[in-house]
């Protein structure tokens, strides 16, 4: 039997301190237990666990669509900074993919991870050398190369940074 997912994620959190972007992505399709894993990590590390959809939705209620587009990066930063912790766990990040908000979800998360370790639950999959969100014909579809961040998914854990070539630890 393999190492528990929460244990692998905690190891990656420790390794993230060495990276420019201290970002760890927990990648799995919807319904595969990402929230349970984040709760276990929260319990074991005391890192704050934030529901991004809830936090941002509350802050954007009184904003116009244009204001939401312009202020979302700052609002997300405020949510993460308010946690006052060196490691923050982010769950339910789907709002970041909302087409009307015109954001680049991975870039937002990378920006946050320059000052603290950010662990985000990514409701998607790993497809070869890319992290994918949604299907190609879906309006929220995103596909990113696996580099400049750590990720944990299913039964394999890999690290890939620009230029390392092999993706293996």
Explain what you see.
It is a single chain. With about 170 residues, the protein is an alpha/beta fold. About 35% of the residues lie in helices and about 25% in strands. It has five helices and nine strands. Helix 3 packs across helix 4. It is globular. The model is unreliable at about 155-169 (pLDDT under 50).
Report the biggest beta sheet as strand number plus sense, adding barrel if it closes: 6 strands, mixed
Q: Give the termini separation.
A: 20 Å
Total count of strands: 9
| Radius of gyration using CA atoms only | 15 Å
Helix content: 25-40%
SS class = alpha/beta
Average of the residue pLDDT scores: 90
Q: Unreliable runs, pLDDT <50, ≥5 residues?
A: 155-169
**How many alpha or pi helices?**
5
Strand order of the largest sheet: 2-3-4-1-8-9
Beta-strand share of residues: 15-25%
Q: State the order of secondary-structure elements, H for helix, E for strand.
A: HEHEHHEHEEEEEE
Apparent shape: globular
Quick take:
With 169 residues, this protein is an alpha/beta fold. It contains five helices and nine strands.
Topology, element by element:
Blueprint: H1 5-16, E1 23-28, H2 34-45, E2 49-51, H3 52-60, H4 65-82, E3 87-91, H5 105-112, E4 117-123, E5 125-127, E6 130-133, E7 142-145, E8 149-153, E9 156-160
Parallel strand pairs: 1-4, 1-8, 2-3, 3-4
Antiparallel strand pairs: 5-6, 6-7, 8-9
Helix pairs in contact: 1-2, 3-4
């Amino acid at each position: 039997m393999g190492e528990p997912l929460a244990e692998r994620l905690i190891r990656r959190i420790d390794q993230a301190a060495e990276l420019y972007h201290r970002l760890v992505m927990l990648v799995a399709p919807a319904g595969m237990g990402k929230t349970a894993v984040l709760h276990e990590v929260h319990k074991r590390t005391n890192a704050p666990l934030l529901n991004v959809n809830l936090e941002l939705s509350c802050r954007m209620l009184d904003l116009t669509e244009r204001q939401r587009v312009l202020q979302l990066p700052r609002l997300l930063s405020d949510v993460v900074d308010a946690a006052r912790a060196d490691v923050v766990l982010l769950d339910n990040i789907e709002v970041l993919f909302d087409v009307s908000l015109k954001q680049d979800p991975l870039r937002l998360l990378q920006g946050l991870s320059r000052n603290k370790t950010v662990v985000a639950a990514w409701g998607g999959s790993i497809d070869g050398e890319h992290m994918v969100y949604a299907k190609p014909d879906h309006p929220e579809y995103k596909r990113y190369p696996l580099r400049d961040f750590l990720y944990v998914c299913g039964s394999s854990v890999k690290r890939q940074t620009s230029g390392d070539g092999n993706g293996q630890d």
